[in-house]
Amino acid sequence: MKAERLLQVILAPVITEKATFIAESGAKPQIALRVAPDATKPEVKAAVEMLFKVEVDSVSVLNRKGKVKRSGRFTGRRKTNRIAYVSLKKGQELDFTEVN
Question: The domain spanning residue 31 has which CATH number?
Answer without folding.
Answer: 3.30.70.330
